[in-house]
Every structure is written in structure tokens, then in C-alpha cells.
Design goal:
- About 40% of the residues lie in helices and about 20% in strands.
- By secondary structure, the protein is of the alpha+beta class.
- The strands form four sheets. Strands 12, 13, 14, 15, 16, 17, 18 and 19 form an eight-stranded antiparallel β-sheet that branches.
- It folds into five domains: about 100 residues, Uridine Diphospho-n-acetylenolpyruvylglucosamine Reductase, domain 2 (2-Layer Sandwich), CATH 3.30.43; about 120 residues, Uridine Diphospho-n-acetylenolpyruvylglucosamine Reductase, domain 3 (2-Layer Sandwich); about 120 residues, Alpha-Beta Plaits; about 100 residues, Alpha-Beta Plaits (2-Layer Sandwich), CATH 3.30.70.2740; about 40 residues, no CATH class.
- It is globular and about 70 Å long.
- The protein contains 17 helices and 19 strands.
- Bound molecules: flavin-adenine dinucleotide (FAD).
- One of its GO terms (molecular function) is FAD binding.
- Belongs to the FAD-binding oxidoreductase/transferase type 4 family.
- InterPro entries: FAD-bd_oxidored_4_C (IPR004113), FAD-bd_PCMH (IPR016166), FAD-bd_PCMH-like_sf (IPR036318), FAD-bd_PCMH_sub2 (IPR016169), FAD-linked_Oxase-like_C (IPR016164), Oxid_FAD_bind_N (IPR006094), Vanillyl_alc_oxidase_C-sub2 (IPR016171).
Amino acid sequence: MLLAAHEIATALDGSSPSSFSDRICFDADLLDHHGHSDWSTSNTSNRAVAIVYPHTTEDVSLIARICYAHAVPMVPYGAGSSVEGNFSQPHSGICIDFSRMDRVLALHADDMDVVVQPGVNWMDLNREISTTHGLFFPMDPSPTATFGGMVSTNCSGTNAMRYGTMKDWVLNLTVVLPDGQIIKTRRGRPRKSSAGYNLTSLFVGSEGTLGIVTEITLKLAPVPADTSVAVVSFPSIAAAARTASALMRCGMQGLAALEIMDEVQMGMLNRYGSEAVRKRVWDEKPTLFLKFSGTTEGIRQDIAHVEKVIDQSGEEAAVKFHFAATKQEENDLWAARKEALFTMVSTRPAGTVLWSTDVAVPLSRLAEIINISKKECSALGIFATVIGHVGDGNFHVAMMYDPNDAKMKAEVGKVVHNMMHRALEMEGTVSGEHAIGTGKKECLVDELGLETIGLMQTFKRAVDPKWIMNPGKVFDMPEDIQRQG
Ligand SMILES: Cc1cc2nc3c(=O)[nH]c(=O)nc-3n(C[C@H](O)[C@H](O)[C@H](O)COP(=O)(O)OP(=O)(O)OC[C@H]3O[C@@H](n4cnc5c(N)ncnc54)[C@H](O)[C@@H]3O)c2cc1C
């Protein structure tokens, strides 16, 4: 692996290893940072031997050719915000950091699409194009996330209810295959095509296990004419989920996001929220966060409609509404939702770690699975909160526990395991948006079955016969490849 790293350094820089600090790094702290995440429970102890920093697709191809020749694992790295050990390096290898491939290559405003390098951050792109061109990219995972990682995890976020997930926004990809070949999944930028296999979708969500994404053509959406936010608190999760389901079914065009936070998470806002979030005292009850977008008049009608749906739902006696009166208040209310995870992680007791789950179920089963999961967490006496993209039936339980307490760790693991199996029993999925990484490989088998996993492995073997692309993710390395070392 070190030999490959030195060959890469020399090839990229054309210089001796002592002077290549700009394109390759062996620093132990940086390697640790690139191989571990506080957000993730699925960390491994192995680290890559080096981090390389490509600037172009050709650099990536060169890196891949050298790694392929030496059968050395390659692990792409975006911003490191994924939470299932997706960028960890259980088989060591070379970490490919895309922070220097962070250019917007072409913006076609009239066609509403953009070509970006994988290291572009989605918030930077939106800042750049929203005011100048009235366009934006709607997926909103971690504020730090970059497009290479977002494509590879098929991410989504609060806007998925209205805009779908990452797979719906990718028009084509440039991909470097494990042996260094450069391919495009589609050469043009048509907004639809039924020409041939849909290779773009094969790479979206493949977690860097099939190839390395070096250019991405994305669709863009028009910035809505107006937006607004409302929060509605309920006496119980069941009442909140019932109302969410009623709101979804009434087909309101302007309802763009529908999020839920439980009473524990609402209490965190009052105690540890940012200054903007603590401008108001939050009702410490299960709360729906509603985002509206459209015309001002349309939003006004939608808000009236929401009130009517709640009036007719029978929950109205115990419900408290709050609609943003100003743009500032709208931002402050939504900040409470967007900052929730950060608030929780930054205030977790010393010595504890976070285990965040990510299951999705059909809407009608959401209240039931959240309630059972909350009961199981309470029985353990651990601190646990619920945040959910309720409009998609997707929720996260974040549990904090002492990792040195082996019994507790096993019990938390059992709660997580139960949650995933319950989701499957309810015809849901073990991963709504965080992908599989190293953390959910066994559950993926339970979800898809051996035959389907077998077909995925056949694709992987065809594209990556030496099994060097982000090995150990999604599924285990087959024994015959392991035996070859
Ligand atoms: C506070 C917080 C909030 C979050 N909220 C959400 C949310 O609402 N919705 C959601 O979906 N996710 C969310 N996430 C998870 C995370 O932001 C997403 O998984 C995101 O897509 C990861 O992007 P990244 O750039 O950090 O990728 P990384 O974590 O660096 O990498 C993710 C995966 O992509 C692979 N990869 C990276 N670059 C490439 C490339 N160029 N080619 C091929 N493979 C590549 C990596 O090997 C790895 O397998 C959240 C995370 C945090 C910490």
C-alpha cells in the first residue's frame, strides 16, 4: 500500500516523496480524522496508509490505475458527514479526498442544470446560484456534505417529501472505474432518457463501491416565490403522526416539508438551542414542523387548509399552532429543526457516544414504530430523542450511551436491531437515507434476501474484480477474494 502511495505521489507531483505534501498526506491525525466520525457508531480501528488529493478526473484515473496494479483498496472521501461508517477503511488502503475538486464546471441556467466536481458543497452551490439565477439544489443533508458523498449515499433530507431523493436529481455522472477507465453514465444532459441501462442510478447510492465519481450533472429547481414555516405541538406522537398522515393525504401543493421532533428533543431546544432558537419557549411536546413553499397567496390558503384539517381531525383541543409572522421568525423556527442534531451531539454527556438509527416505514405505521422504539429506549434508561422526516415515514432515534459499558452497548444494539426488524415487518427499510456502510450489512441481507444481494455482488465483481473499491461496505468481501489477500 505504501509503495502504491509513493508511486501516486510521484506520478501526481512528478517529485520525490519528501516534497509531495501538497498532493499526499501521511499525517496520523489527518488519517484518523479521515477514518473516524463522532457521528457514526460504525467506526473501525483500521486507517488508510495515505490520503491523496486529486485535482482532476485524470488524476483520479492515474490513482486508480496504480491502486489497481497493486490491488490496493481505494476509499473516496467527501466531507466525512456520513454516519454508517461509509468512508471508514476496514481494509486500510488509500483515502481519496475530494476537497480540491470543488469547482462548478458549467451552469446551464436556461436548462436548469449544473455540472459540478464531487467536492462542491451543496450549500455553497445554493448560495452562488439562488440569488443570481433563481435556482437551487433541493437535497439538504448535513450542511457540510459534498456532492460526491451525496450521490454515493443517495441522500435526501427535509425536502425529500416535495422533491424526492438524490437519485431523482442526477442527470449523468463521470466515473473512474477501479482499473482507471473513465466512463460517462450518459453523454448528454437530457431531462429524461430511456436509452439503455440506467447506469446513473446504479452508481447513485453505491457508496463508492463500484467506482469514483468525478463529475456530476444535476438538475436544479426554481427557488419558490415565497416560503413559510409553522410548528404544531401535540399531546402524543400518535396524534402528531395521525395529523401528518391526514395532511399528506389532502394533497396540498404547497406543503414542502413535514418533520417531527419528540418531546425530549423539544426540551433540548429550550435548554441548549442556539440564540435564535431560544428566542421562544418551545412546548415540550411532540411537534410537527411544516414548511410551505409557493406563491404568497397559495401559502395563505395552505395554512388555512392545515387549520381545517386539524379542526376536523378531532385532535384540535390539545393542539397548539404557531405560524411564522415574519421572515426572521420563519428562519428561527426552521433553525430549530436543522440544528437539532448538532445541539444534541454538542451537549452529550462526557464519555457517551451517539447511535443514530434511520429506518423508514409506510406512513400509516410510523406512530406505532416510533412509540415502540421510544418505550424500548425508556426501559434502558438511556437518553434518546426522535427526529423524523415524517412526510416520508422516515425517522431517526438518537441514543446516547457509554461505549465502555459492554452490557449497555449490547442492549442498545438490541434496540437498534429490533427497530430495523420491526421496520421490515412493517414493509419498510433499514435505511431511509444514511445508506448501509459497515453498520447495516446484516440487515441489508434481511431486507433484500440472498438472491438480490447475490446479483449486486455479481455487478460489483464485474466492475471491480479485485474488490478494491471501498471494500467492506454494503456487503462483506467474498471469501475467495479474501483468500487472495
Ligand atoms: C448533522 C448531520 C445531519 C445529516 N442530515 C442528513 C439528512 O437529513 N439526510 C441525509 O440523507 N443525510 C444526512 N446526513 C448524512 C450525510 O450528510 C450524508 O450521508 C451525505 O450524503 C454525506 O456526504 P459527504 O460529502 O459527507 O460524504 P462522505 O461521508 O465523505 O462519504 C459518503 C460515502 O460516499 C463515498 N464517496 C464520497 N465521495 C465519493 C466520490 N467522489 N465517488 C464515489 N464515492 C464517494 C464515500 O466513500 C462514502 O462511502 C447528516 C449528517 C450529519 C452529520
